[in-house]
Structure formats: C-alpha cells, structure tokens
Amino acid sequence: MYAQMVKSENTDSGPELDAFQARIDAGEKIEPKDWMPAGYRKTLIRQISQHAHSEIVGQLPEGNWITRAPTLERKAILLAKVQDEAGHGLYLYCAAETLGVSRDELTEMLLDGRMKYSSIFNYPTLTWADIGAIGWLVDGAAIMNQVPLQRTSYGPYARAMVRICKEESFHQRQGYDIMMKMAQGSEAQKRMAQDALNRYWYPSLMMFGPSDKESVHSAQSMSWRIKINSNDELRQKFVDQTVPQAEYLGLTVPDENLRLDPETGHYKFSEPDWTEFFEVLNGNGPCNKERLEARNKAWDDGQWVRDGMMAHARKKAARAASAKVVAE
Amino acid sequence: MGDHLFEFLLRQGDNTLILSHRISEWCGHAPIIEEDIALANIALDLLGQTQMWLGLAAEVEGAGRSADDLAMLRDAWDFRNAILVERPNGDFGQTMMRQFLFDAYHVELLNRLANSTDERIAAIAAKSLKEVEYHFERSATTVIALGDGSEESHARMQAALDDQWTFAGELFETDAGDHALNDAGIAPLPSELRAGFNTRAIAVLGDATLNIPETTFAHSGGRSGKRHSEHLGHLLTQMQWLQRAYPGATW
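The joint structure predicted for all components is written out below.
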C-alpha cells in the first residue's frame, strides 16, 4: 500500500447515497458504470493514482542498483522486480482511468507536485543491502495493506490488487533472501545488512501513515471500504511479523523500547519521528528533489518520442484511408 | 579448437551481457511506461542468454571459473563484445537504432546457430531465437515509427543511424577462429550473415524513410579485444563494483 493521508470527503446525500452504501455494506462490488458519490470517485482517484505514482517513482531507488547488482542472477531478479513495478503502475493507472481521468493528466499532476507518492521512495539506496531491505520491509509493509484491499469495494481496484499481491509476495521473499545471504556472509556484509535495517526501519513504519487518532480521513474511507484496516492495526501487524524475522537474521531492530508484551502477545515499539514524515511529504526528504527531477526529465526527454509515434500513427491512418478510397 | 570455441562463446555472451547492461540503464527513465517495461524485458532476455553463453564458456574453458566470474572479474581487454553494444545509450532514438542494428544481425546469427553441430550451442540458439525474433520485430517497428514520424523524430533517427552505422560492420568481421568453427559446422562465418542483415536493414530503414550512409568504413577492435572504446571501462567499474570491492563474498 503506497497511499498515505489520502483525503476523503463526502458531499452527497439522499436515497441514492443510501442505496450505494447498502450495496457496499452487503459486500457488493461497485463497477465503473454504476452510480457513485462524487466523493467516493474523487477519493478513489487520489488513492489509486497515489499508489500508481508510487510504483513508478519506486522504480528509481531500486533501479539505482540494477547496474551494480553483484551477480547475474541477482541482476535478473532485480530487473524482473522493477519491471513488475512498472507493470503495477500501468494497471493501476488503467484502474484510475475507469473513474474518468486520463493517465496523462495524472502523470502531469505527479510531475508538478500536485499529487503525491509514498514517502518511502524519497529515501536513498546506499548499499546493496538496501535492495534487500526494500524487498523485505517496504514490500512487506505494502503487502500488509494490499492483501485486504483485494476485498475493496471498487471492482477494478480490487482486481488489480489481486494480481499485484501475487507479485509482491515474490518481491518480499527475494528481499529477505538478499538479507539472509548478507546476514550469513562476511563481517562487512553483516554490517551492511544492519545498516540497511537501521535506516529503513522507521521509514517503513511511516508507510502506514500517522496514527488513527490523527488520521481525519480514515472513517469515511473505511465505511466505503476503500480502506479496510486502520493505520495502527496494520503497523502493529507489520511489527509483529517483522521482528521475529529480524531475530532470525541475527539483526537488531533499532528500537530500545521494543519488547514483546506477554499479555497481548504483541510487540510494543517506538513511534517513528512524525516530524520527519511530514517533512518528507512536504518535499524535504533526502531524495524528493532527485526523484521528481528524474521523472520530469524522463517525461520531457520522451516528448519527441511520444509525438513521433503519434505522428506516425496519424500518417498510417491517413494512408489506409486514402488506399481505401482508391480501392473503391 | 578449444580456444576458438571459448573465444566464440565469450563473443556471444559479452555481446548480450554488455547490451543488456546498457538497456537496463533505462530502467525508470523511458519515455512511456510501456517502453520501460519493454526495455526491461529485452534486458532480461539478453541477461538470460548471457547466463547460458557464459555458463557454457566457463564449462568449455574448464578452469573452474563460473559465468559470474567471467562477467564480474575480467578486465576490459578480455571482453569480446562488439564496440556497438558498449556505446552509451544516447537518446531513446539512438538506443533503439543500436538495438535494431544488433537485432538484425542477431536474428541472422541465431538462425544459423540453431543448426550448429554442437548440440549445446544449437540448444541455446534455438531458445534465444524465439526471444530475439520478437526483439527484432519490436525494434524494427519502433525505428519505422520514429523514422516516419514527426520532423524531429525523423531527424533524430537519421542522426542515430549516421552515428551507429559504422559500428555495425564489426559484427561481420571474420578471423581464423571463425573459419575453424565454420569448418567444423559449429558456427557460420560472420561475413556470411551480412547479406541477410542488409536485406533486413534496407527494408526497415526504407520504411522508416531513412538513408543508409554511403560509407563502407567499419570500426573494429571489440570482438578481437584489441581496442575497445573508452566507454567499456566505465561500464565495468559499475557492473563489477561489488565483486571487486568485496572479493570472495557470496551474494
């Protein structure tokens, strides 16, 4: 799940809205041509496109290591993973398009900063272990949110999520596998693995968004089944799952307050630094500038390619039309 | 024959390795998402082919080296790829033109290698051919679309062709080792592939409304390893970084 702080609003009321809510409560899927409240449509567009943008921007930190992957096999796996992410971006944009907005419009909103992508991709990948940490922690956190979203109320979104989840679990396994190799490797590799965990732990916790107490949009999104679980619930689940994995690797989670509460069976843990989180969202993360610059450059440099292809398509269509006239 | 065979296998594996590496540099930076996906796909295919070619090269050499050792622990002068594939990506048009010229050669080569008397080579070629036929189709379609596209895309594609053309000739360079392999029915003479390549190039570049440069000059030095371009060394410093910085580590 790469959507954080998605604004949710409802401006509709009346019998149509009641009927709509009843369908959602009955577990029915809403399809593109069905009536839906304007707020539902808007919120979904924001959420799905934020997720799509995250997949696209998310190619950059991992792409940063494709040319430096340590073996042919690691390189092939990483390439395949980043390619999957571009694919996820593509079908999420398609899902968003069913709501009446074009991919180009959404792209422009990403590029000029009107739309956001997940805060996590504004952190740098400094060593090969970061590629492991991203697979293990970042994809692990994403899966926590995406698995329930397979049951979300909007049909195209739920179906996109089914496919995405299959691939994400493979991504997480490859990340953990990288960490395992390094944790069992040389001293330098162990240091690298620990350092990656140190830097990615709290940013991964931030991926779930601020505490529910602060999250003003959650209630509406949850009643529409656009959001299935609360941020805190998912964060807790993530910590409970991840801490034993870190222990198995022989790595230390960078949290002095971390302990298993024998009464609840859940881990108690420190909150991430939410000031940092909001700074990152506001453009002050370590890589915000580079990420957006890279995407803008790709888009601008590609303009002549897109124009050229369109010009060719028009020429071809014109030639086919005149050939048809001649034949008649 | 062993030396010739090893050299031949390095040439195959190094071409696919270095080209795959170059294409993978596009990841996240392509003009549209569909191109990002397609480029990653081609880089992956070529990387898979590299594992097979260099794997066989290591086996033939019998010196206890692996495909990874060959990729990550040789220096530039031991690489045997054509200079064409080590050239920097340039703009998207240059990348696609380089790809088209290589694909047109690659299809012709693999078609012949699929009938090699060496069953291992025939098997790798047959598997690769399925992928490379698609690579050719795609790069040809893209070259045609951009050549016969807007004024700007046409000008860029013509510039790309002018720039790359003199690097294609090396692919057909033929030496004593090639003759030895040809005599044994293992591989065709590279010079024999030129006619098929020309037919493909003339047809596609014609549809793309591009003019093939008149020069017959061809750069060389890559496939013999005698004189690569300066670009290869920089590529290797990146590709081999971890293996060089942490010798003996497993990843």
